[in-house]
Every structure is written in structure tokens, then in C-alpha cells.
Design a protein that fits this description.
By secondary structure, this protein is of the alpha+beta class. The protein is built from 9 helices and 5 strands; from the N terminus they run βββαββαααααααα. It has a 5-stranded antiparallel sheet with strand order 3-2-1-4-5, covered by helices on one side. This is Holliday junction branch migration complex subunit RuvA.
């Protein structure tokens, strides 16, 4: 029905983005992976969308890649996994890392995602294992997901000190973070933000 929306970023939240297209502002729920890939300075962005209609409301979900959109659609086919939990999982793990966790029965990794307990993790693995194509896994993205987990931890720590996500992201982009521990990265970011 609605494959994608292309428009101007009006607002970036923690779980959503508002995009203006032809004078209409669309609130699009999304994952932290998509939000972290969005350049707030960009004039136009494109998000692949999926509409969820319920009795009480209509929700629009969107992602910056077809792969993440398709993985979201797969996740919501699992019993007791709704769109909000699917987004939480995709915020915790990129699509390649998630697929790898499912194929390797990595219950512990799935349980690290907010809202996922042991039974839910087992259900995700059981219901999706045969639907995952191993050839769709980008092994370079798995390493990237580990880096993103560290950066998200650093970001959350700095947010708790009163800085916003965009200031923190800008500071992180200016630093060489290779081979540093989380505590060292936080100190460097805070020094950069204080200047």
C-alpha cells in the first residue's frame, strides 16, 4: 500500500522520526539502527514503510533499508512479538547479527534485547530459523553491530549527563576510537563536548 516515504526531517526522536512530505508530517516508528543512520542535516531522507492497523490506531513503521524492513516483517510474524518489540530487537541487533543469532540458536544474545525473555527468544528461533537465508548475512555488519553496541552505551551514558544524541554523535565522529575501552571513550567524548 505505502512502500516508502521520502521527505524532509522535521524531528528525530529516540523511537521515531517525523518526515514532512507535501505538507503532511508523518510520524514513523523505527529502530535505533535506522535513527543512527539518519543524518539530521540531510534535506531529504527515504524510509521503507509498513502500516499496522489496529482498532484504536494506525501506526507507520519505517526503516532505512529493505533488509531491515523485511526482517521487521519477519519478526512480527512470530507469535507474541508485536511491532514495538520487533523495533526493540532491531535497535539492539542489526539484521545480520540477529539472523546469525537465530541460525546459531544464540538465546543469550537475543535475551540482551529489551523485552526479550528466554521463552520469547526460543520462540523467535523456532519460528524463524527455517525462514532465514544464510546468504543474506553480511558478516562485516556483525562486527559493525558490536561497535554500534559500544557507541550506544557511550551515548546513553552521555545523555544521562544532559547532552543530546546529536551533540554526542558529532563528538564521536571527530574521535579515533580504535582499541579504546568504553570508559576511555566516554571521557574523550565528555572532553570534546565540554569545549
Amino acid at each position: 500500500m505505502l512502500e516508502y516515504i521520502k521527505g524532509k526531517i522535521i524531528h528525530l526522536g529516540d523511537e521515531y522520526v517525523i518526515i514532512e512530505n507535501n505538507g503532511i508530517g508523518y510520524r514513523i516508528m523505527t529502530s535505533m539502527n535506522t535513527i543512527s543512520n539518519i543524518n539530521p542535516e540531510a534535506t531529504d531522507i527515504l524510509l521503507y514503510t509498513h502500516i499496522i492497523m489496529r482498532e484504536e490506531d494506525i501506526l507507520l513503521y519505517g526503516f532505512d533499508s529493505v533488509d531491515e524492513m523485511n526482517t521487521f516483517k519477519l519478526l512480527i510474524t512470530v507469535s507474541k512479538v508485536g511491532p514495538k518489540l520487533a523495533c526493540a530487537i532491531l535497535s539492539c541487533l542489526n539484521t545480520s547479527r540477529l539472523k546469525m543469532a537465530i541460525l546459531s540458536n544464540d538465546i543469550a544474545l537475543l535475551c540482551k534485547c529489551s523485552g526479550v525473555g528466554k521463552k520469547t527468544a526460543e520462540r523467535i528461533i523456532l519460528e524463524l530459523k527455517d525462514k532465514i537465508d544464510e546468504n543474506s548475512i553480511n558478516y562485516g555488519d556483525i562486527k559493525l553491530n558490536n561497535i554500534n553496541s559500544v557507541l550506544e552505551e557511550v551515548t546513553e551514558a552521555c545523555i544521562s549527563l544532559g547532552y543530546n544524541r546529536y551533540e554526542i554523535r558529532n563528538a564521536l565522529e571527530q574521535l579515533d576510537l580504535e582499541n579504546l575501552e568504553i570508559e576511555e571513550i566516554i571521557k574523550l567524548v565528555l572532553r570534546k563536548l565540554a569545549n
